[in-house]
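FAQ: What does a multi-protein file look like?

Like this. Sequence, then tokens, then the next protein.
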Amino acid sequence: MSAIILMVIGLGAMSLGYFVYSKFIANKIYQLDDDFETPAHTMQDGIDYVPTNKFVLWGHHFTSVAGAAPIVGPAIAVIWGWLPAFVWVVFGTIFFAGVHDMGAIWASVRNKAKSVGALTGDVVGKRARLLFMVVIFLVLLMVNGVFGVVIAKLLINNPSAVVPVWGAIAVALVIGQAIYRFKWNLPLVSLVGVVALYTLIYMGPSMPVSLPDSFMGLSASANWILLLFAYAAIASLLPVWVLLQPRDYINGLQLFVGLILLYAAILLGNPQVVAPMINGNLPEGTPSLMPLLFVTIACGAISGFHGLVASGTTSKQLNKETDARFVGYFGAVGEGALALAAIIAGTAGFASLADWEAVYSSFGQGGIVAFVQGGATILENGTGISAEVSATMLTVMAALFAGTTMDTGLRLQRYIFQEWGEIYQVKWMSKAFPATALSVASCLILAFGAGGADGSGGLLIWPLFGSTNQLLAGLTLLIIAVILVRRKTPTIYITLPLVFILTMGLFALLIQLRGFYEKQDWFLFGLDLVVLVAAVLVTLECVSVLRREKKAAQTS
């Protein structure tokens, strides 16, 4: 089957979702109001609260939530066949992710830009807030810990990506000054930034950079991880307009150029999908599709991490409330388009079924490797761009997204510590520098304390990310549903997705709990149990409040 069919159906359906369904949700359910004064204006401080052009803010939101997950998840999940992954990405983007992301921004903006964790205290209660924030902290710890390892491995395995990955920081700093200090024309700045970024990508293969195998007693991977966290700490403390916003914005444009090239190569080269529609020859040890598909593919369909970004950084920069539709829902569409590209690269970037099966020889295989190799083959055959340059471009794309997610993730973790400081009246913790130090320290303790000298500890708790992340998405939708009930607004468009994703997340956690018990992995067993109990208790408290509010609405 031609990959063009998947591309046309997938992109066409997501476009309809944005132009039709998102407009209905924005106008009739969330009732976005242009006249509402957002916290970016009422609480403006020039550091975290900054009114931002919606295109620039879309770039920040999109690249912060995208990371490597919408590439890795779909490119792993096609082991069950391309159809389940394709259907979940398309329907998840339209009816789950867009509604969730836009709703999290809206709920936060309507409540002084509070994070979804802090917001839980106002909407549900203090006990639910404490439990919810524990889940949030664990998700952020997983994201920051593992992305440090992922980026380090990408830079080690692809020395040609080092110059463009780090050079993008310099480009972003210049763009931030051009937009905010010198007030240059945004389209011109955007064009110059994209050209500069792709020039770096083109230069990458001729200027490979590698760290020594051992330096000061640490491996190259460990040194990269330390450099990445040092950078992320600095980035999280700088005003958002200096580095975070422009870096995310230019990366968003870079991704869209990359996606346009990849989709153009599909049209020109007409690659054939060699993977089966439903895989009846699964490798031994492959888990059941239900519910693992729905936690393997999180970003690209729906992801709780998106709610953290939406309510943590995006809501503090929203210029007009109506911008939430473009930033939130269209950001989800962009991520869905990336996930779709990962599915096509992982199923049509191989010469034959045998070649595909050689890569997908066990569950967990594929991922970024399949995306880079398959995508580079499609680009070379369709556009004539050399495989080496194509692979560098796709590697840089993955590394830059993982990096921007890590930037935002550490800033969000800093917010969590600051919120804890305010809640429990620990004044020193509510300040930016100590909170950042605690955030970095917690990540490094996980990285090196659990992983040893190579700093790979972030991978230790990663098996729990998918299910925990999806539970977080369901709980975020629960909070949004409570707010809507209080406003006497229909909740069916929220409750259907939240029931489904909460069920899948809890189901997956229970399956994993049994697996950890059988393997006698008591650390992950205990952590799984903590997340499971916290999620169940928060759900019960939210449902109780939801019922009470519905009764109050009916009697009033």
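And here is the next protein:
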Amino acid sequence: MRDVILFAFILVIFSFTEALCQREFQRENICSQAKSRSFLIKDYKNIIQTPLLQCYDVKFYFLDLNVENNTIAISGNVTFNASVVTNVLDTFAFELIDELYIDSIKVNGIGENYFRNNDEVFVPLDFPLPVNDNFISQIFYHGSPPTGDFFSGVSTEYDSTWQKNVTWTLSEPFNAREWWPTKQILTDKADSVWVFLTTSSENKAGSIGILRNIVPLTGNKIRYEWKSKYPIDYYLISFAVADYQDYSIYAYPSNLLNDSILIQNYIYDTPECLTFNKQGMDGTKEMLELYSTLLGLYPFHEEKYGHCLAGLSGGMEHQTMTTLGGFHFDLVAHELAHMWFGDNVTCSNWSDIWINEGFATYCDFLALEMIAGDPWPEIWKNNVHSFVLSEPDGSVYVPEEDVTYDNVERIFDSRLTYWKGALIINMIRFEIQNDDLFFQVLKNFQIEFADSTASAIDFINLLNETTGKNFNEFFQQWYYGEGYPIFSFSWKQQDSQFVINSVQTTSKPESIPLFNTKLPCKLFFNDGTDSTLVLNQQTNADFFSFPVEKTIDSIQIDPERWILKKIESIIGIQETDIVSNFLFFPNPVNDQLFISSAQNDIKEVSISDLYGNNLIMIEVKQPSCMLDLSGLSPGVYFLQIKTMLEFETKKIIKI
């Protein structure tokens, strides 16, 4: 897996090399993007989860584990506190891969027998539990899970740069079962969690929440006791263990009155590692303060935010303590944004992973826009648009049938889930035409679904309610649909009117034949001034007319790249202004164009494209004729009509 260094944070300014402008945007070093290829080497079992997992609601997880910095071997016990939500619970079920050995299982303090089937564990209860009963199950286990790629539940590595061993976990999307007994259901967040980690005394072990205690033990061991009171999804629980040092700083969001938020960084315990990463870690403070302003106060402000440096190529947004491979600007910004989108509000199903990844990726852009500054927002937009437009199809929404254990690459498709997903949010911002209202939508979403899960439908409903607009068609086109619009424009200035024609085709017409979208058009005048108009494309061929007093030199369509699109041509048209002696219709035309002359003097009729290429030419010996345009692609064309005395050119639109 390739690690692409994107940005380095140097004091309060950014120093970049020109080569970074050409960075590959199918990058593998942000969050789950790193997973888009490496999983292919792993043989996943295609499992359908047992319905018994839905029979109880998890209230609390307690992981009490023995871990080391140089092995994937793991042992200990995991406790479930849960409540029965079915009429009678006679079998307790959970997930744990077959490679991990179960020593014993207790339910409410009583040892129970169990059986295993395809990485699921079933515990028939001697005393079935009625609805609303609370119960405690404790599973003792040990073993060495499979490893070797980004998707491994537990990985270990020797970092030759810093000469340190490190072991870390990664559970998204289906890998928690590879290192602890769990319930991998997104909509069942535990209300709280403890993670106790016993390791050799020269190590530090990082995890979620607050480090409540460090307990020295016999045998040169030490236990780190992490506790979190916030609701959490199964895949956001983690640990990382190494010979770490603790570099902690504080953020001071304006909406946290006279208080601060701990930013706790576990990095390898060498002076050089601290020097190398210090500026990147320090940059987290400004990002956390920015996001707290734009999105609402950091959701876990009563605990902390932090990082554990590890050997993975990229990062993973473990709640309150991201695991990452370096402190590059985009990576830090992306993983921090997940604390709002992904951790506080989690996608309710993997089909709507956009709730996590699309928004976090757009927050990369917000950090570039409001912290890094020019030219980096423009570089981001140019590269992202180019990457998304590199293929003609694909929806941001992941169809349910594509969400399988052996199709992780589709869930975390970098072009669709991340980059097209981010551009959709930028287009919503443009459609709203009010930044205060746009960011209020994001804040409301965080408030409405805090500590819970949400789907794209939930976001659409909240967006409609907050803005008073109807975005249903927008999402049918851009989120559920495939492809993007392709435009051809022709324009002219006549008297005091600016007239522009927009012809739209699409890259995937069988999915979306028309994107009903707004499009900014910037006019440049000969006195050095400019003005921006908004075109609202509602048909495949639209005419727009605006009063303009100044002389137009040129125009640009969407120069700030708000809308995902391709533009094939922008042509300034000069039509003959004499009174026409001819009749031609319909215009716009589908297949057949009718032409007639009252004077019966047409000699030749031809059709050419915007580049002057002659496509159709016929000689005429009658007062009227019919041209068959069925072989032409939709777009703008010129109709030339010749007589013995004159030559007229008219613009036609083929739809």
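Q: Is there any per-entry metadata?
A: Some entries carry free-text notes. For the entry above: The first strand starts at residue 9 and ends at 10.
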